[in-house]
């Protein structure tokens, strides 16, 4: 079968695209069952006709990525391959132009995977969004970036961030200090994300003016949240009753994002997760969307995605009883 030739004009771009020791080319070979041979800036592609065509499309997408000044990582290559297989090339290229906001450090916050792109679009279009998936998929950070963008654009008057203070029951009495000292460790991840997005000084100014509120879930009872962007984090640790209470706080001009990881439920055995129940009950309602992220959307260290996949296989019984 004849070889397909593919070339990129710029030497520096070729180095970025090919990766250290041609690691990106090796990944494409492995995923698409083709053979790529690089000579200078030209790649000879061997394999089935379908494999050759897919490889060319992946290389074309990565060339666009490099031309936009973006770095190519193993994760970028995996996402490009998946985009070609799913016919989502346009969505992949849209990742280059998608920009939620720029942090005080000059970092552009944008979705990095096709799943994250769907999640951001859902938050943009729907009043209530459930973002579900494993750690490292950007569920909370992207939701908070969207909330900050909405606040800056005066689309809402305040941001309300909440999470269960502890595992479901919110029993804080055994911790030392006053109430603020007790709940602070459980809310700290929310502060950390805000500090990254806005900087500590701006975050504290917004809080002092009442534009940002961070509180345990128990503090939401009896309130109506109008003109607010409300985020419930770690929602897998809410009870059925807590989740119902929270969702009915939705007021005029407000939006809600509920995030959680159903594989890390800390509720006592036999208790139903409010997240799982709500996603099941409300799926299909108008202006509600459930977005399921997977290990393919993990943007932390590449090993994290493999760890998550390994645990999923083990818990599905493929590796025996892992809890013995």
Task: Please tag this protein with its features.
324 residues; alpha/beta; 6-stranded parallel beta sheet; 2 domains; Ribosomal Protein S8, Chain: A, domain 1; Rossmann fold; 11 strands; single chain
SSE topology sketch:
Elements: E1 4-7, H1 11-18, H2 23-32, E2 35-39, E3 42-46, H3 49-67, H4 74-86, H5 89-97, E4 101-102, E5 108-109, H6 114-125, E6 128-132, H7 139-152, E7 158-163, H8 179-198, H9 200-208, E8 212-216, E9 228-232, H10 240-247, E10 255-260, H11 274-282, E11 288-292, H12 302-315
Parallel strand pairs: 6-10, 6-11, 7-8, 7-9, 9-10
Antiparallel strand pairs: 1-3, 2-3, 4-5
Helix pairs in contact: 1-3, 2-4, 3-4, 4-5, 6-7, 7-8, 8-9, 10-11
Please tell me about this protein's structure.
With 324 residues, this protein is an alpha/beta fold. The chain has two domains: 4-97, K Homology domain, type 1 (Ribosomal Protein S8, Chain: A, domain 1); 103-315, P-loop containing nucleotide triphosphate hydrolases (Rossmann fold, 3-Layer(aba) Sandwich). The protein is built from twelve helices and eleven strands. The protein has helices spanning 11-18, 23-32, 49-67, 74-86, 89-97, 114-125, 139-152, 179-198, 200-208, 240-247, 274-282, 302-315; strands at 4-7, 35-39, 42-46, 101-102, 108-109, 128-132, 158-163, 212-216, 228-232, 255-260, 288-292. Strand 4 and strand 5 (108-109) form a beta hairpin. It is elongated and about 70 Å long. Mean pLDDT is 87; it is low at 319-324.
């Amino acid at each position: 079968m004849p070889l397909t030739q593919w070339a990129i004009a710029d030497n520096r771009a070729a180095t970025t695209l090919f990766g250290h020791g041609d690691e990106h080319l090796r990944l494409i070979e492995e995923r698409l069952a083709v053979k790529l041979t690089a000579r200078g800036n030209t790649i000879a592609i061997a394999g089935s006709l379908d494999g050759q065509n897919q490889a060319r499309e992946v290389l074309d997408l990565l060339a666009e990525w490099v031309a936009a000044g973006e770095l190519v990582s193993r994760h970028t290559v995996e996402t490009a391959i998946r985009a070609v297989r799913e016919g989502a090339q346009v969505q992949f290229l849209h990742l280059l132009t998608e920009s939620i906001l720029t942090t005080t450090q000059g970092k552009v916050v944008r979705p990095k995977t096709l799943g994250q792109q769907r999640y951001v679009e859902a938050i943009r279009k729907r009043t209530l969004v459930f973002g579900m998936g494993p750690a490292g998929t950007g569920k909370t950070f992207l939701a908070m970036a969207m909330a900050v963008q909405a606040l800056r654009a005066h689309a809402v008057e305040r941001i309300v961030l909440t999470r269960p203070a502890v595992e479901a029951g919110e029993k804080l009495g055994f911790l030392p200090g006053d109430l603020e000292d007790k709940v602070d460790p459980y809310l700290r991840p929310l502060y950390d994300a805000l500090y990254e997005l806005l900087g500590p000084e701006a975050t504290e100014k917004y809080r002092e003016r009442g534009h940002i509120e961070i509180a345990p879930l128990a503090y939401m009872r009896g309130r109506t949240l109008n003109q607010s962007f409300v985020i419930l984090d770690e929602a897998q640790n809410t009870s059925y009753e807590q989740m119902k209470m929270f969702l009915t706080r939705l007021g005029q001009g407000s939006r809600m994002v509920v995030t959680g990881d159903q594989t890390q439920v800390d509720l006592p055995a036999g208790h139903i997760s409010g997240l799982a129940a709500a996603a099941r009950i409300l799926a299909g309602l108008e202006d509600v969307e459930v977005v399921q992220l997977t290990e393919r959307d993990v943007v932390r260290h590449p090993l994290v995605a493999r760890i998550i996949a390994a645990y999923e296989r083990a818990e599905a019984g493929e590796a025996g009883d892992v809890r013995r």
